[in-house]
Write a structure and sequence with these properties.
Elements: H1 2-17, E1 31-33, E2 39-41, E3 50-52, E4 61-69, H2 74-85, E5 90-93, H3 95-99, H4 104-113, E6 117-118, H5 133-150, E7 158-160, H6 168-177, E8 181-187, E9 205-209, H7 216-229, E10 232-237, E11 240-241, E12 255-256, H8 257-269, E13 274-277, H9 279-291, E14 293-298, E15 302-308, E16 326-331, E17 336-341, E18 344-346, E19 348-351, E20 355-360, E21 367-371
Parallel strand pairs: 4-5, 4-10, 4-13, 5-6, 7-8, 8-9, 9-10, 11-12
Antiparallel strand pairs: 1-2, 3-16, 14-15, 15-21, 16-20, 17-18, 17-21, 19-20
Helix pairs in contact: 2-8, 5-6, 7-8
The structure holds zinc ion.
Length: 372
């Protein structure tokens, strides 16, 4: 009880002062509720005016679907199914499985064109902890170069460890090359927003593994866990095939297409609460939201909002990532005409009498909120 009083008092002081600026990047926050009960990151809160949402579009939690190895059913079955549901996923191919397919690069290009991510799953699928340092770099660089050469405008920022094995040296190599996060195969246990206690945790993202035995009820309760916790839930799939096994996809842990559809349907039913996105987007958003500083200045005809991530921030350990936009809520009672960043009008995706919501890129130029 005593603790509760102290915490409440601290929160009140923060709100009254309106200066809960993040001194420490990666400082973890709690929900602050405004009068419309919309949760905002308290540590991205400054001048009591602009808040950065925990997840994009102010969703409560993030769900990521990952498909490993580029097994035979993934392109013909999973890619069109995702498209039909208006969802995206991350594929971690074994390069040889792309090269040996008749469709080869056309299939990968289509996958990317639909908004999916092609991550890096190494070149030859080795145990990354049992190879030399030079081999380690080659295992990372070779598939990256191959994908970036064959698919225009693609940049590799996500890695999945073959067999889920890694050590500090592997993490440090990935970070130095520019990967923002990596996925293992350990089962998720922390569904909260604070799943990354330290920076290395972004290179040990845990999962829920799917296979033929996974009941949909289990899947649904996993999703409910993350909605409750507000964190990131990453599903790991391998083989997918239809009832007739048309693609002979029995590579590993086959999931039937009908089950996958049921799972996607459940995500769709909860889309007001869930941001279903790629692995790279989810990790990068979380890193940015934990590091960004916001500032707001009032002018006679506009409000200027700055979203900056500075050099001392954790994110800078990764060489120059291309930032993903953050969802910003600006509290104002002024009548807003439009929002502009870098000369480009950005859509206002929600608005009430007292606040507007839009997406802007940190370090992407100041945001001008033009007012009447
Ligand atoms: Zn694999």
């Amino acid at each position: 009880m005593k603790h509760f009083v102290v915490i409440s008092l601290l929160m009140l002081l923060q709100m009254a002062g309106g200066m809960a600026q993040n001194e420490l990047c990666n400082k973890k926050g709690t929900f602050l509720l405004d009068e419309t009960t919309i949760p905002i990151l308290d540590h991205a809160y400054m001048n009591g005016r602009a808040g950065v949402c925990r997840w994009d579009y102010n969703k409560r939690a993030a769900v990521v679907l990952t498909f490993d190895d580029w097994t035979p059913g993934q392109f013909p079955l999973v890619v069109p199914t995702l498209k039909r549901f208006g969802m995206v996923a991350t594929f971690f191919p074994i390069p040889n499985n792309i090269l040996s397919s008749d469709l080869a690069w056309d299939a990968v290009k289509t996958t990317v064109k639909n908004g999916n991510e092609i991550g890096n799953h190494s070149w030859s699928h080795p145990d990354m902890t049992k190879i030399s340092n030079s081999d380690l770099r080659e295992e990372i660089f070779k598939p990256q170069n191959m994908v970036e050469t064959n698919v225009p405008n693609v940049k590799s920022i996500s890695f999945a460890y073959p067999y889920g094995t890694f050590n500090q040296q592997v993490i440090d190599s990935l970070r130095a090359i520019g990967y923002v996060g990596a996925r293992g195969v350990w089962r998720i246990s922390n569904y909260s927003y604070n799943f990354a206690e330290n920076e290395d945790d972004y290179y040990n993202i845990r999962i829920f593994g799917m296979n033929e035995q996974t009941k949909n009820s289990t899947y649904f309760s996993e999703v409910e866990n993350v909605i409750e916790g507000g964190g990131l839930l990453t599903f790991l799939y391998h083989s997918v095939d239809d009832d007739l096994n048309s693609y002979k996809d029995s590579w590993y842990a086959q999931v039937k297409l009908d089950s996958l559809k049921e799972q996607l349907r459940f995500l769709k039913q909860n889309e007001d609460k869930l941001w279903v996105t790629t692995f790279g987007n989810a990790v990068l958003y979380h890193r940015e939201a934990n590091c960004v500083k916001t500032s707001v200045s009032e002018k006679s005809d506009c409000i200027i909002v700055d979203l900056t991530i500075d050099d001392s921030d954790v994110l800078q350990l990764v060489p120059q990532p291309q930032y993903v936009p953050l969802t910003v809520m600006l509290y104002t009672e002024r009548k807003v005409k439009r929002v502009v960043q870098n000369g480009v009008t950005i859509p206002i995706d929600a608005q009430t009498c007292c606040w507007i919501r839009f997406r802007a890129v940190p370090n992407g130029g100041e945001v001008t909120v033009e007012c009447e």
